[in-house]
Amino acid sequence: MTALLEIEDLTVAFNGARPVIDNLSLEVAPGEVVALVGESGSGKSMTAMSVTRLLPPAARMSASTLRFDGTDLLTAPDARLNKIRGDHIGMLFQQPKRMLDPTATVAQQVGEPLRRHLGMSRKAAHEHAVELLADVGIAEPERRAGSYAHQLSGGIAQRVMIAIALAGRPELLIADEPTTALDVTVEVQILQLLAAKRAQYGMAMVFISHDLRVVASIADRIAVMYAGRIVETGTADQILNAPQHPYTKALTTCSTLCCNDDGSLYVIPGDVRSAQEITAGCRFQPRCEVAREHGIQAKCRGEEPALEPCGDGSASRCWVTIDRKGPERSDDSGKGAAA
């Protein structure tokens, strides 16, 4: 199947510094949900901004391929990019109340993409906006249409953002931490709503989260990011139930285990290194207990492993899994493994 979204060798840097995203490759098929998972600072949101070409002015981006539904996003003129955003790629952000315009009503904000991208009149856009609000599960949609952002709860605000993102019936939705800061009940409702809309529209999705528990219910495949690199890819079942990379294993432990045997809170030691702190070798090595257990810290410090297939369709960027697998090697793109 031809990929809807193709990313190959994506690199993003700021002001000539070391890249914050380093040779990232990923494919998303039509109708597929691919989750990007990792701690804050791993490059997930920057990857999403790269796809829509909405990076900050200081960012410098390069890629061998950045293509959406056959369109080269690297060379597309601004008018074409503006048409793709909204019409074909929808965006959903965390902290929805901050993303909504405090001076415009809900109906005005939901109606704006309908007027801009679909050419609706003001009256038609208002009527369709009310229908969209009802479609995303907002009670009393006509009344809510006249509300302002400060009058909405977090859950209602996110439903409004979903209505805006889906107004143009996009083929791809990029959802960046859409359940952050929502209580557990509302989080489940939003995930169920996104899953329902995906099924209704046949829509693909890039779902960004720091929480494997959240993506478990919605993702077909998962790509785990660490310090600007994809370190493991696989189906949701593979990543959640048989992770290969030490970082992924630590994330799954954080998602399922609150405390160690002695009652202390389980945490991954250390922090994600910034781009300026990265040197040669595996980027996770300073925090990796597996490297210490296997006595291969020197190897991990000296050379970064490639993203290698694990034999079951998944791939891992770890010397332990590579050495266990044997001499067979692949290229480092991760494209096939992530496809």
Automatic annotation (TrEMBL):
Keyword ATP-binding annotated: yes
One annotated GO molecular function: ATP hydrolysis activity
SUPFAM superfamilies from the UniProt entry: P-loop containing nucleoside triphosphate hydrolases
Residue ranges that the Swiss-Prot or TrEMBL entry lists as coiled coil: none
Transmembrane segment boundaries: none
Broad class of the protein's primary localization: membrane
UniProt domain ABC transporter: residue ranges: 5-252
Gene Ontology CC: plasma membrane
PROSITE patterns: ABC_TRANSPORTER_2
Membrane topology reported for the UniProt record: Peripheral membrane protein
Keywords carried by this UniProt record: ATP-binding, Cell membrane, Membrane, Nucleotide-binding, Transport
Matches recorded under Pfam families: ABC_tran, oligo_HPY
Localization annotation: Cell membrane
Keyword Cell membrane: yes
Biological processes annotated in GO: peptide transport
Annotated family: Belongs to the ABC transporter superfamily.
Annotated PANTHER family: DIPEPTIDE TRANSPORT ATP-BINDING PROTEIN DPPD (PTHR43297:SF2), OLIGOPEPTIDE TRANSPORT ATP-BINDING PROTEIN APPD (PTHR43297)
Protein name per the record: Peptide/nickel transport system ATP-binding protein
Native source species: Ruania alba
